[in-house]
Design goal:
alpha+beta; Penicillin V Acylase, Chain A; eight-stranded mixed beta sheet; six-stranded mixed beta sheet; 5 helices; 14 strands; 19% helix
Length: 283
């Protein structure tokens, strides 16, 4: 099952930006949650079917992830259809957002187990960004975590092939080609953006004739699509870590936006700004 998610990190006008295209094998039902835990405000998405989450907190810690397990999306599709038990990765990311120190969040991403003590850490590619530093973590069930501090004078993209572990993720065939082309298109685009929101615009542009190889996927543009070889981009996330701004752009054709679940006290003044765009991508 091709998992076509893309995560990106860049600096735009001296602002720290994380972004993601989220691709699913089902129409995602997503809400935004704002909550306050131990004086830490958290804003994140929750996928209603799989419990997946990604977000940021009021101490300027933001987290996005892209999978490296080739069967991850097939599992999520079955969960969505049959209401099975979701993975604990969403819980793990929410846990990592509870901390005030970046070192604690990074440690949590690599080591937190949840209820299943044999399932350690968040698998795949994870970016943990703060106002001062950004870290990349790569791990799978078969590979120990590799953590690196990213050079902010450069742009960084992760798709679905391994960087530290070249035997992980997609290693050959059309899937590997798609992963590498999407990496190239996204990476080249980042050097041209002038405003933060341009990152999402660039990640939704068309670069290849075959939609499979575009950062923004659309099943309607693929001839004879099958469940086994095509996903659709259900939405995009952009987090401006510097200005504490969370932007969710949902695709009307492939998702359902469920609104904002604000769990903070009535008198609380939010520190994180939320912007939601519910759009239909032009054909």
């Amino acid at each position: 099952m091709i998992n076509e998610c893309i995560i990106a990190h860049t600096m735009v006008n001296n602002k720290v930006i994380l972004a993601k295209n989220r691709d699913r094998a089902y129409d995602a039902k997503v809400k935004i949650v704002r909550e306050l835990i131990n004086d830490v405000e958290m804003v994140y998405i929750i996928d209603d079917d799989t419990d997946w989450s990604e977000g940021m907190n009021s101490h300027g810690i933001a987290i996005v992830n892209s999978a490296l397990m080739v069967n991850a999306d097939e599992k999520e599709k079955k969960i969505a259809k049959k209401k099975g038990k979701p993975s604990e990765d969403g819980k793990k990311i929410r846990r990592a957002l509870m901390f005030k120190k970046p070192s604690e969040s990074v440690y949590s991403v690599m080591n937190y187990t949840g209820d299943d003590k044999g399932d350690v850490g968040v698998k795949g590619h994870t970016f943990v960004a703060t106002k001062n530093h950004t870290f990349s973590i790569e791990m799978t069930t078969e590979h120990k975590p590799v953590i690196k501090k990213l050079n902010r004078s450069q742009n960084h993209v992760r798709t679905n092939h391994g960087y530290e572990y070249t035997d992980s993720g997609y290693t050959s065939g059309p899937s590997a080609k798609s992963s590498k082309l999407r990496w190239k298109y996204a990476h080249d685009m980042l050097s041209k953006v002038k405003n933060p929101i341009d990152v999402l615009t660039g990640l939704s542009a068309t670069y290849a004739k075959d939609s499979r190889n575009n950062p923004y996927r659309d099943t309607e543009k693929v001839k004879n699509p099958t469940d086994k070889d095509i996903l659709s981009t259900t939405g995009q996330i952009l987090m401006n870590v510097t200005d504490l701004e969370y932007v969710l752009r949902m695709d009307k054709e492939h998702s359902h936006y469920l609104g904002i679940d604000d769990r903070t006290p009535d008198a609380y003044e939010p520190k994180i700004k939320i912007k939601v765009q519910y759009v239909k991508k032009s054909k």
